[in-house]
Amino acid sequence: MPLLLENLLLLLITFAIGLAIGWFIWGRTNEDF
Amino acid sequence: MITLITANWLLYLIALLIGVVTAFWVWAGTGREASAADSFDADDGLLEKAGEPVRPADSQPEPAPPVAAEPAPAAEVAAAPVPEAKPVETPEAAPAAAGKPNIPAAVGEPDNLRLIKGVGPKLNTLLNNLGVTRFDQIAEWKEAEIAEVDQYLDTFSGRITRDAWIDQAKFLAKDDIAGFEKKYGKL
Question: How many of the other CB atoms lie within 10 Å of CB of B90?
Answer without folding.
Answer: 11
